[in-house]
Amino acid sequence: MPGKTSRTSAAQTGQKWLSRALCASFALTTLQFISPAHAAAEPGTIQDRFEFSGFGTLGIARSDTDDARFVRDQTQPRGIGKSPNAKLDSLLGLQAYFRATDSLELVAQAISRYGAQDDFRPELSWAFAKYSITPNLTLRGGRMGTEFYMLADSRHVGYSYLTVRPQVDFFGALAFHHVDGADLTGTVALGDGIVKGKVFAGRANEVTPIGSELFSLRGNPMAGGYLDYQQGNWQWRATFAQMTFKHDLPRPVADLRAALLATGIASAASAAEQIALEDTRSRFYSVGGVYDRGPLQVQAMLSRIRHESASYQDSQSGYVLAGYRLGQVTPFGGYSWTRSKAKEVSSGLPNFVPAFAQINDGLAGSLARVHTDQKTYTLGARWDFRQNMALKGQLDMIRGKPDSIFLYPTSNPGAFDGKLNILSLALDFVF
Fold this sequence. Notes:
Low-confidence stretches: 1-41
Mean pLDDT: 88
Number of strands: 18
Order of helices and strands: HHHEEEEEHEEEEEEHHEEEEHEEE
Distance between the termini: 44 Å
Radius of gyration: 23 Å
């Protein structure tokens, strides 16, 4: 079945890629070292050029309902309910950095977090070589974090941001964490600030859960870029990214498409084509700004997602977050929202035929499962009680429509009233 990926094959493919990526990285390193010119130019020992670091989060969270299981993003197959749960935010990441020459750096990062395959298996999230063509122009190749939105590439490093987790209304729909490809970054002075531009292209190499199945994103071409401007305490960024899907959705959408096509009726076949995902594109647009001066931090971002397929609804979202540091403690508050709109899709099949009525119900359910219409009020505090460690407490009050279920893949639509209160505690650290 297209798009269906077994857990075993997923693991095997990931291991093969890991081996290839590491071989490629060390091959680049070796090529640099066998060059006498480079070897003579580099002072210091191997130890001087190597850095090892890490980061992590020990988190626990609970909801006030079991009718909609809250997840951090679309890569998590099971969400949390009333019982305190440490799966949502806990993770451990390790980074290795090697400066091969003044122009070439090698970076690798592995993370263990609760992910698509319902476990904490480690994944290689970064493995790239960075080459400085000039002081203002760099080229990277390998596996890199996605930057569909501002700050998206540091979503796992909890110590780097105020809240327990990135705003789910804004970042939760993203099931992409890294891309295998290349990017080119350039910087230039403009006025009192610095303009930074990046373009990237590559392919996805992840899976994401759809019900009890895994939906493959592997091989999906991705491309995009951003334009960033930093001036004093301000940073602004506009981004664009695009993905072309190479696989259709697994069951139950695959079964629904088969049933529509099996009727032999033109209108039903048209509906099947409209909910097909293969060879369609999704486009991601966002703008954002960050102000950071002394004790005050403010972030605000907006995004729009447009899908060619009716299997996903076009959406828009945004958030504003502010924090003010008082000694070791930084209280913060935020507001976020997300809304989507379904495309008109009709099978043209009459409901008085029981078999057709069942297909129509399946079509309506398929379109409804990706709907979202909610807003979230966030209050919390971060306590930097010692160097490189921060303790956070946070309350998220989600107020949405009962049919806003896209961000809660294991919700109970008949009982969920659209309201959730999430209480979270997290210890973030870097080393």
